[in-house]
Each structure stands twice: as structure tokens, then as C-alpha cells.
Amino acid sequence: MMKTCKIILFCLLMSSVALSCGVARQTAQEREALVDAIEDSEFILDITEIMPFGYPSRASTGEYALRVDDETVTTRLPFIGDSRMPMMSSDEISIVFEKEKVDMAKDFSAASRGEYRFRFKGGKGLDQWTVNLQLFDSGKAYIRCVSTSGRQMSYMANVVVPKDED
After folding, report:
1. What is the pTM of this model?
2. 142 domain-assigned
């Protein structure tokens, strides 16, 4: 009985090792594609968490994303908080970039640790936004947005490699 349990345990262990090796190879390929997309400035940040300054965080239901395609940014991110200007529309309060060409500052000095930083300014509406992106080769990202009037928003996201459209 004890010998049978050891054999079963050994088989389970070996199958889990075999599965993890296959996953590791796939993860390495995915990580390489992810790093290439980040370094080429062609990626999508799928928002997973909305973190308003001074308010509780909330999960995103997948309706928000930020797309970077070279030096062009497209996004519509919600602003949650107090507006310093009364009677503003949602477009004027939200963080909106509509295929906007931006001057993208890139900092890859921490790339050896799997960290990539981007910074750009712009946006539609009464406020202009300074957007800081902190991307990791693990596929996670942190977004921090600060407006000219001092309003702030942060977001957590997953980095997605865009599908080739032929």
C-alpha cells in the first residue's frame, strides 16, 4: 500500500514537472514578445483596477484600455473624484486621448530588472494630463495621471501585445 502511494506521488510529481517545463517555455516566448512590443512602443494596457486619489480602489470590468502605437495614444480612462471646475462634461473630466500624437519620453534604464517607463502629456478637455506608465516584463503595468489642475488618478493594468492585423 505504501509503495503504491509512493509510485502515485512520484508520477504526480513528474507530470507536474513536465507540465511546468512546457509552461516555462511558453512563458519565455510570451515574455520575449511582450518585451519586444514594449520596446517597439506598440502595446495595449488593459485596465484591471481603478485607483482614485483619496477614494477606495475598484476593479475594472474590462471596458477601459490605453493603447500605445509608436507615438500615438488612444484611451478614455475614467476620472473619479472632485472636479475643481463646476459643470464639466464627462469628456472634460475623463482622461481622453483620441489617436493623439504625443512626444513620448522613454526610460529603459531598468530594463535589466524588467521595468520600462514612458511619459507623455496631452489629452482632450479643459485639463491636460501628464501620464506616467511603468510597465514590467511580467505583463503588469502601473499608470499614474496628473492633470494641470492637480487632479490625480492611478490604474493597474495588464500589458497586452496587439494582434497583427493582416
Report:
1. 0.78
2. yes
